[in-house]
Amino acid sequence: MNNDRVFEAYQGTDTDPATQALTRSRIDWIVQHVPPGRVIDVGCSQGIVPILLATRGETVLGVDIEPPAVEFAQARRAELPSDIRERLTFVLGDAQVLDGVDDGSFDVGIATEVLEHADDPTAVLDQLFRVLRPGATLVVTVPYGVMEHHDHHRTFYRQSLQTMVDPLFEVTHTTVMERHLALLATRRPEAVGRPVFALSTDEFSFLRREQNLNATVTDLRRRLDDANLAYRRVTQQLADAAQLREGLTSRAEAAEARVVAAQARAAAADAQVTELRTRLVEQTDAAVREAAALRAQAQELRLRITRIHRSRAWRLLTRYRHLRARLSGRTAPPAVPAVPAPPAAQPAQPGALPAAPAPAPRPEVPVQPVRPEPAAVEAIRADFRSWLTRAAEAPGDEVVLMFSGTTFVQEARGNRPIRLTKVYLEQRRPVFFNYYRWRASEPLPDHADPLLFQSPIDVTPALLDELLAAPFPGKRKLFVASIPHETMVRYLTLATQHGWTTVYDARDDWEEFEKVGMAKWFDPGFERYVATQADVVTAVSGPLAAKMSAIARDRVTHVVPNALDPAFPRPSSPRRPAEPPTVGYFGHLTDRWFDWDLLQRAARAYPTWRFELAGHQAPALDLPRNVRLLGLLGHAEIAERSVGWSAGLIPFVNGKLADSVDPIKVYEYLHLGLPTLATSFPQCVGYPGVRVTSSAEEFLAALPDVVGTALDQPKVDAWLAENTWPCRVDTFTRLVQEADAVPSRLGALLRSGS
User: Fold this and answer.
1) What residues does each domain of the chain span?
2) Of 156, 167, 399, 545, which sits most exposed with the smallest number of CB within 10 A?
3) What is the DSSP track for 537-564?
């Protein structure tokens, strides 16, 4: 349902003046170009055009497929005078059928804003041709170009509209009104063909550009909305901060007043203490004097008692008492027993209850799961511990944990983690390389370098704790994560605690890979965490770096493009491009991003050329005869095969996934002396010898130019010399050294909590 409200827009009800002015301009133009006679308006919506024409005196039939629109129009008709109502009819019907309408019964046909909604616009024209008399007038308007609407089935431009109308109606006039294309035509006496909707090549190209522009505008509006939201959020935060500052200022002033009051009270207390100290000294002196007087009195009393006990009267009195006691038959009064000394104070006891037994020691939490590990894991662990010893003794100044998530290190596959690993090994820097395998039963890969340890992703978590805690005296410890896997989230903090410098190297847009069904493990929260907390964040391209900076809260993301392996083979003989030309490609052939449709269009456009494709995971397709699949070739085989190629191709599907890519094969094509033609890779714009195109048509048109181009080999070689994998390792070393000089967010957090 369209919910068209053209009547209300014309009247200015619940709409802005600009919209009303545009609507009135278009409707008035239609009414002005309708000659007198019987009129049929198909897709009349709320009936504004039929009502205006009936008011002018014409007899009008309005047809629309939307019941609410017809009901609205009939309600407006009921409000009109009776003479106008008699000339005006609204019915529910389909413009593609027009059942019940007689042939040749109308002088004017109107189809405004209808053809873009119809499943088959040619059927609408057929019906209008049927119900209009020869020589009748046809008035048509459609949106001009792309106008986003959920019910628009196609887009019209001037040539495509005229071409579709012309077999049935002779076009007499076309014009453009703001965003609408208007057409006047006369019914032919006889049809001169069948109406067909088809965009011309130029219109189709313009449509794609307009769609891309609309997508860009939509994205810019979204980003502007995000920026406005962020601005409002920051503004609110600033307002909150200002309010908080005012509150803190008030609290500080109150606290300062309390401090002043407390200082006054302290001064008064000091005065009171001084006075009390003086009084205490005086009282102490008086007490001392009184005590001295009492001691003197006691001494005087003791002297007097001593004199009494030594006197003759005391001795006589004592004998008298004993004599009376014997004469009375009493014994001398018993001596009063000495009062026993109070027992010595004993230490407090806990009571009569026995002491509680000491608690049993808590069992240590096992580091490994209770279930024993498979024997295969233990065998890998033994090899791993041997590698730890070799790594600690290696001459290089760095040990690298490369968390790749792709295949193991091999010659036939040369992705970014593998290339970096080879350079680290050449510099005698030991590497722990995590790779992906499909089944635990797959054998472990062999490699001649003892400083490389390759661990499958199903085993790596059992080794990481020991690896991260292992001592590597005199070596910088570098943890490189090229995928934001769940394991990285769990171990990033542990790595930082043990002194590893962490790098998130975004080599692909994993969110877009997940959308095409590849990186099913991807979780945006994991990537946001790793990109926010790693010491260094890098990306292979400018667009991907911008995305990483956005999700990592505007932190700096360094662009570190891919590069050339200087050891990549060269052919054993000079290039001898075949005639007719042969163009080649090597790499992944999945239809998730390889543009097979474009490749086949190129093969059909140049049928005498040969297209050779080397790689894996090609889909089962019925390919043109001049397309040859070579299978998965090693680098040496590719170098020899390239002798007969005239150019290297990179035909990927244009979109966000390709926008983030910096293909390694670009460097290798140039190394082999091949001019290169690619679809849209923004990072590759400006690379010497590389032609980047933005559309399929531009790609196809550029093929002969690229095939006929000779590289400026000295310029290309000089550029390649500055873009090798050893150069990229030097860049990583520099970024890591800079990061080591500045505490990371996570490291600072861990230290503040320790």
Assistant:
1) 6-199, 210-302, 375-559, 582-723
2) 167
3) EEESSHHHHHHHHHHTTT---EE----B
DSSP single-letter state for residue 116: T
Tens digit of each residue's pLDDT (9 = 90 or more) over 177-207: 888 999 999 999 999 999 999 888 888 888 8
* Cα–Cα distance, 659 to 212 (Å, whole number): 14
Phi then psi dihedrals of residue 581, to 5 deg: -60, 150
Domains 6-199 and 375-559 share a fold: yes
- pLDDT class of 352 with cuts at 50, 70, 90: very low
Q: How far apart are CA 395 and CA 427, in angstroms?
A: 9
Long-range CB pairs of 321-329 (<8 Å, 24+ gap) are: none
For residue 416 the two structure tokens come to 């970014």
Give this prediction's pTM.
0.52
What 3 state SS string does 415-439 have? CHHHHHHHHHHHCCCCEEEEECCCC
Which tokens hold the place of 533?
């907390």
Q: Look at domain 375-559 and name its CATH class.
A: alpha beta
Q: Is 58 exposed, middle or buried (CB count within 10 Å of its CB: 0-12, 13-18, 19+)?
A: buried
Q: Roughly how many angstroms between the first and final C-alpha of the chain, as a whole number? A: 63
Domain spanning 582-723: CATH superfamily: Glycogen Phosphorylase B; (3.40.50.2000)
Q: Which DSSP helix (H) or strand (E) runs through 714?
A: helix 713-721
Q: The domain 6-199: what is its CATH number? A: 3.40.50.150
> For residue range 449-482, what is the model confidence (pLDDT) as tens digits?
999 999 998 899 999 999 999 999 999 999 999 9
Q: Cα–Cα distance between 578 and 646 in angstroms, integer?
A: 7
Q: How far apart, in whole angstroms, are the C-alpha atoms of residue 593 and residue 653?
A: 5
Placement of tokens 């968390």 in the chain? 403
The helix (run of H) or strand (run of E) holding residue 170 is strand 169-177
User: Does 580 sit behind a cis peptide bond, omega within 30 degrees of 0 on the bond before it?
Assistant: yes
Which secondary-structure segment (H or E) carries 326? helix 312-327
Q: List CB contacts of 78: < 8 A, sequence separation 6 or more.
A: 85
431-459 b/e with 16+ CB inside 10 Å = b? bbbbbebeeeeeebeebeeebbbbbbbeb
Determine if residue 370 is left, alpha or beta; phi over 0 gives left, psi from -120 to 50 gives alpha, anything else beta: alpha
Sign of the Cα torsion 216, 219, 225, 227 reads negative
